[in-house]
């Protein structure tokens, strides 16, 4: 079976360049099916209509493109508006175009588009023909335009981290997507759409918020910021944005935190895009006039020591090992009613340069087969991450996954583990001030505004974010 045919302005291979065997074609088909299984989340019509309103669609003879049209909701709503405004005298396929990699979804999109045509008086056969010429079953990342092609680009691009993209497609995309835009399919689509829209055009998307927040998307933001500003940015509620979320129970929202965003090209004014993270809907003036936690105390991340039972042991195992190698350890499950309970596990502390005693080596040798692959080191006695954290002073533990940044006290000699956050200050008085600040309403609001959102009201706290947190009780 032959591959896609290149045509003017597009980046696909020439017809003679690719010849697939049946086996290779089956691998490709399976990869596309898996990708669809992972990413097919569709946008509800009210959200689509709001984005089309912000584009001012339809507008004269400008062209609208949806690069990952799914079952065609964006195309159908755009076409309905176009036909209502201009019922005759033009070729719809010249003004509206959709791309979809999955054959089944492409079929659904054509059927939805054809229904719109029939409502405006076209016969079923003519409607099917028009839909066929409007919706392409092709991969936008490998075959899509690489220079200005559309005036408006709108849709709901896929959100999927590169590690989860099927291997066949990931290897294909490596030849078409810049390395700095390859961490997530969303990044890849934004980069390609930035090249495919005219200089004064607009991109209107429903996207996951993470490309605005994550440090890994800094270069993407900078690149887009050289050509676009943000004309509109709004947080959306996930349970109202999507319909038919694939492979979830009815009514269950997807595990993303969506935003509506419009990027405007040309000389228009708006929120500037740069390497700096952007937090949708945040009033930055609320946090002015305070010192940050990083100016007042030291924030550290507790080590991850691998599978329980190897370097992290229970009381029974600890009782059989030399005490000089052991320190009590705490995790979030030791927090009860806002206070830290007695430690129930111990950490085997070793140093890379010094081989521990035979009892420790025998224990590690007998348990290392249980260690997660990413936790194994060349030296048997070296844990996945260093345990050299200074625990000589009282500290504060802030759970890494939490609903607020509240802390608990950790006594000297106890080691926090599992990437929870640890805070130490110069004096007992300073530690008390930090503890009070972490429990304040301002800290809770700041964390809700800035931390990556998870599910059920939880957020992901990091050392960098915590260092930037304003101290409500320490004004500048």
Task: Please describe what this structure looks like.
- With 476 residues, this protein is an alpha+beta fold.
- The chain has three domains: 22-272, Vaccinia Virus protein VP39 (Rossmann fold); 282-302 and 389-476, no CATH class; 308-331 and 343-386, no CATH class.
- Helices cover 32% and strands 20% of the residues.
- The chain is built from 17 helices and 24 strands.
- The strands form seven sheets. It has an eight-stranded mixed sheet with strand order 4-3-2-5-6-9-7-10. Strands 12-22-18-20 form a four-stranded antiparallel sheet. Strands 13-17-14-21 form a four-stranded mixed sheet.
- Helix 2 (45-55) packs across helix 3 (73-85), helix 3 (73-85) packs parallel to helix 4 (103-119) and helix 4 (103-119) crosses helix 5.
- The protein is elongated and about 85 Å long.
- The N and C termini lie far apart (69 Å).
- Residues 1-9 and 11-19 have low confidence and may be disordered.
- Residues 151-242 form the Type II methyltransferase M.TaqI-like domain.
- Keywords: Methyltransferase, S-adenosyl-L-methionine, Transferase.
- InterPro entries: MethylTrfase_TaqI-like_dom (IPR011639), N4_N6_ade-DNA_methylase (IPR050953), SAM-dependent_MTases_sf (IPR029063).
- It is an enzyme of class 2 (transferase).
- It catalyses: a 2'-deoxyadenosine in DNA + S-adenosyl-L-methionine = an N(6)-methyl-2'-deoxyadenosine in DNA + S-adenosyl-L-homocysteine + H(+).
